[in-house]
């Protein structure tokens, strides 16, 4: 499975870099990094893009990235911003803790590291909160030229297909070997470009479904492509000993940690896309919440709606939402109303009749690990309602102000 032949390693490097030079996408962070002479500002530009691209598609990130870099072109500018401003710009991008951690790390660079970014992957991961192994490797290789590999979802897919790795690609043992491969394979003279080429290949050619194998610059080195019409899972001879025959190697038994289990079925209709193999995805937790849109005014101007701020930690930390209350499973609708009325009474300081809550409908939003349903109610209130300052921060906003606030996509649906 491993890249052990120096000639093959050299051929893969050359082919990938040549392909990248002629076929790479023009992306704003690449242009900024290429034209920025200051290495720390270049590293910041790369860092922001890598954080935004985690779990988010390129097409979605571009506008967010451009607005972010226009507002905070340097680490120092980001460090001076408020978390509220960060959340407002991040709103709709998802995985909101990413923006918060990015700003925390920027503040640490400014206050504790004299404004100087760490230069190596090891230091980046050690010193900056929220910077993991992949992000550290990307920053260090692209911005500072460190010859270190990177492993993200795209790289996992490419390497598993290139080397015929059929074991569970999410297991720690397999991931460790993939990191070893990436570090062997990375081009020493152009590590940043090579890592981007490997990721670009996975994003545009070696895609999860219907890969464009005939357009692949390294197709002649791909074990998955060689075996897609053959006898099933390719298996290495190391699982059977040095005297194993080809027939035995592809027979379906063995103990190599990078080969698939002997009992794993091979789907001939999938071919190359049998790789990589992942463990069954954990089903998201099901959750329900009652949410109320309180509305006041409207006669003398635009209606205003009450939004409250979530806690500073946990899901959607620090974001604003309509008053909401988690619901136990199987709760009857009448009981839901009573609980929500009691919750709202605390905000307004006066009794709320459960019967006054108007049921609007349900909104479903899928977080990465939660299948969330919001049971939505509305309630008109008097102009003179005052809010309890002892509770979480809250404010009345117009519809325009609501959309400009740091609110989640789920609340925009509501």
TrEMBL record:
Principal location class: mitochondrion
Record keyword RNA-binding present: no
Protein name according to UniProt: Adenine DNA glycosylase
Subcellular location per the Swiss-Prot or TrEMBL entry: Mitochondrion; Nucleus
Gene3D superfamilies named in the record: Helix-hairpin-Helix base-excision DNA repair enzymes (C-terminal) (1.10.1670.10), Hypothetical protein, domain 2 (1.10.340.30), Nucleoside Triphosphate Pyrophosphohydrolase (3.90.79.10)
Superkingdom of origin: Eukaryota
Species, as recorded: Nothoprocta pentlandii
PROSITE patterns for this protein: ENDONUCLEASE_III_2
One GO CC term on file: nucleus
EC number, UniProt record: 3.2.2.31
Free-text function comment from the UniProt entry: Involved in oxidative DNA damage repair. Initiates repair of A*oxoG to C*G by removing the inappropriately paired adenine base from the DNA backbone. Possesses both adenine and 2-OH-A DNA glycosylase activities. Adenine glycosylase active on G-A mispairs.
Gene it is expressed from: Mutyh
Entry keyword annotation includes DNA repair: yes
InterPro entries: DNA_glycosylase (IPR011257), Endonuclease-III-like_CS2 (IPR004036), Endonuclease3_FeS-loop_motif (IPR003651), HhH-GPD_domain (IPR003265), HhH_base_excis_C (IPR023170), HhH_motif (IPR000445), MIG/MutY (IPR044298), MutY_C (IPR029119)
Cofactor(s), by name: [4Fe-4S] cluster
Keywords on record: 4Fe-4S, DNA damage, DNA repair, Glycosidase, Hydrolase, Iron, Iron-sulfur, Metal-binding, Mitochondrion, Nucleus
Catalysed conversion reaction: Hydrolyzes free adenine bases from 7,8-dihydro-8-oxoguanine:adenine mismatched double-stranded DNA, leaving an apurinic site
One of the GO BP terms on file: base-excision repair
Family (UniProt): Belongs to the Nth/MutY family.
């Amino acid at each position: 499975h491993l890249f052990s032949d120096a000639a093959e390693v050299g051929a893969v490097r050359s082919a990938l870099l040549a392909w990248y030079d002629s076929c790479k996408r023009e992306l704003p962070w690449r242009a900024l990094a290429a034209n920025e002479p200051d290495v720390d500002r270049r590293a910041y530009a790369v860092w922001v893009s890598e954080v935004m691209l985690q779990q988010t598609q390129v097409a979605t990130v571009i506008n967010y990235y451009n607005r972010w870099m226009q507002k905070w072109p340097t680490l120092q500018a980001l460090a001076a911003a408020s978390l509220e401003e960060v959340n407002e710009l991040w709103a709709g991008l998802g995985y909101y803790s990413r923006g918060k951690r990015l700003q925390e790390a920027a503040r640490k660079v400014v206050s504790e590291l004299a404004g100087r970014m760490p230069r190596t992957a090891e230091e980046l991961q050690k010193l900056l909160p929220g910077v993991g192994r992949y992000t550290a490797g990307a920053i260090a290789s692209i911005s500072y030229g460190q010859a270190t590999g990177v492993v993200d979802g795209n790289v996992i897919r490419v390497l598993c297909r290139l080397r015929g790795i059929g074991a569970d690609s999410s297991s720690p043992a397999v991931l460790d070997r993939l990191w070893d491969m990436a570090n062997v394979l990375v081009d020493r003279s152009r590590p940043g470009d090579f890592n981007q080429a490997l990721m670009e290949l996975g994003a545009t050619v070696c895609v999860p479904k219907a890969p464009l194998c005939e357009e692949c610059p390294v197709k002649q080195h791909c074990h998955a492509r060689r075996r897609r019409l053959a006898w099933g899972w390719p298996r290495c001879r190391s699982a059977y000993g040095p005297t194993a025959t080809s027939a035995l190697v592809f027979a379906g038994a063995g103990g190599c940690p990078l080969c698939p289990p002997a009992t794993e079925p091979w789907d001939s209709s999938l071919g190359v896309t049998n790789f990589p193999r992942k463990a069954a995805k954990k089903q998201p937790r099901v959750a329900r919440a009652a949410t109320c849109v309180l509305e006041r005014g409207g006669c003398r101007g635009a209606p205003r709606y009450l939004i409250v701020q979530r806690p500073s930690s946990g899901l959607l930390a620090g974001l604003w939402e309509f008053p909401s209350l988690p619901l136990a499973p199987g709760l009857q609708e009448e009981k839901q109303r009573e609980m929500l009325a009691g919750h709202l009474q605390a905000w307004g300081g006066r009794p709320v009749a459960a019967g006054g809550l108007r049921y609007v409908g349900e909104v479903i939003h899928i977080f990465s690990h939660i299948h969330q349903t919001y049971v939505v109610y509305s309630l008109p209130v008097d102009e003179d309602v005052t809010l309890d300052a002892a509770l979480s921060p809250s404010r009345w906003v117009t519809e325009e102000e609501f959309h400009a606030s740091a609110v989640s996509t789920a609340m925009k649906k509501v």
